[in-house]
Amino acid sequence: MAKKKKTPPKRKTLPKRKTATAPVGAKPQSKARPDLAGQPYSTEEGASQSMLYDWIDCRMRSKLNLLGYRRTASTAALDYGSLWHAVLEHVGIGAQAGQVRTPADTIAIKDKIVLRERKRMSATNADHTEMVIAKLEALWPVYAEVYAKDWSTDLWVELEGLFDIPWHGLRLRGKRDGIRKQKPRGLRLFETKTKSQVDQNEIMEALGFDFQSLFYITAVDAELSARGMAGQMKGVLYNVIKNPSHKLGTKDSPTLAAYVKTVRKACEKQPEKYFCRFEASYTRTAIEEFQTELYNIVKDFTQWHADGMPVRYRNRACRDRKFRCPFRGYCSTGSLDDLERSGRLFVELEED
Length: 352
Ligand code: SF4
Fold this sequence. Notes:
- There is one protein chain.
- The protein has about 350 residues and is an alpha/beta fold.
- It has 2 domains: about 40-70 and about 155-305, Alpha-Beta Complex (Lambda Exonuclease, Chain A), CATH 3.90.320; about 80-150, no CATH class.
- About 40% of the residues lie in helices and about 15% in strands.
- Strands 1, 3, 4, 5, 6 and 7 form a 6-stranded mixed β-sheet that branches. It has a two-stranded antiparallel sheet with strand order 2-8.
- Strand 3 and strand 4 form a beta hairpin.
- The chain is globular and about 60 Å long.
- It starts with about 45 loop residues before the first strand and ends in an 11-residue tail after the last strand.
- Residues about 20-40 have low confidence and may be disordered.
- Iron/sulfur cluster (SF4) binds near residues 60, 61, 314, 327 and 331.
């Protein structure tokens, strides 16, 4: 009997690039590309660390960002990070004001922020809102206990501090999660990151030359030197919080309430798997070396913008990164379906 031929699995094909259709013989129409003419961004508005970071990494990403293109839907990971930042900020403000002294005092503030953020998140994506909140509910009481010393009135110098400082012809702009006193070693930046995978060696190595931390330290330096107090910032305390995996619907977590209980129990048992802090100190030489590089970056970025933001090549090596660029769809197929031209250039600096 003749053997049955195996049919190969169906190949996946890329969606066709969008082009304008035209009758045969008609003049070729322009492709449905975004309107890259016009420059809503002016360097007089200054630059945040993420703007300069994008520019170093990929001219195309930088250009699309500066033209105001943004992803339409927020992701669950982004919402999880924003929720933690909002709760930490408001609990910290409570501690500064002397209203929060114990882990139990943090709960009412956390509940208030969850209520507010639930409305905001549901408006953009109702599907993941409850899961994002469940994760915070599972971890927050343990976090508040583990870092009970954070709730002291004289620890925080600044929380979610906006800065905007002239530096060699460009305004450096940003929002720092926090600055705290670290006796006896001077001031430390406090930066919170939420991550699904925590590789301690990788984080420590990367912190040694971290662009964001050194950019913020440069801005603090510039602010303090205006007051004759430069050089007080010594490093960064990196606060990493795990983003637990979704295991809803499993035997242990058939419902959201059961999921909260399971994750809480696991976190209580091994809090070090959910929360870690890393401290990096920077010598003056390392800070000055960064500032020399930043000076060149600022100069080249400003010139590139003045030249009309040419993109001579893209960073196609981005496909090997964990970070998922919001413009992958555009680079791959030319599609703008998941993007909007909101024109909001400093989203991370907007007050809530
Ligand atoms: S997908 Fe890659 S090449 Fe395209 S804009 Fe983003 S970083 Fe650049």
